[in-house]
Amino acid sequence: MNSHPYLRAFLAGAFVPTLILPLILCAFVIVRLALEFPFPIERGLVFPMGLVPLLWALWNMLWLGSRSRTRIPIGVHGALLPLLLVPCGALAGTALGVLALGSQGVTWFHTLHVPYTWIAPVFCGALIGYYLAWKYIVGFVNRTLGIA
User: Fold this and answer.
1) Under 8 Å between Cβ of 14 and 57
2) Is the pLDDT of residue 41 over 80?
């Protein structure tokens, strides 16, 4: 089963965010519409929902192509992805005017202010979550598809 390993890596990488992002969208829709939360959540969800599965898929293809040279475990490789996503997302958010970086914290959509002291633990949690998702879920799908 060595035919099209990069296609299988693409599908395995896109598997996790394709399952999780619609659940997150449902939760945000409930918060926004049912609980009438005044934060414009939908403006910040549409772009990442299209981009994140693609980036996970490409990141898995990169792992497949580089694993013979780098020998990085898939969990560590997956945990490196937020180190790319967060700065690129912050840059895109500030360029589009939906994110403002201040001296005390970050302001989203001119309404929600988050201090930097909260961002650091959340980012560490994201690194741990990405490590676990890549090690156990993406690694399992890669093994199931015969590319790990």
Assistant:
1) yes
2) no
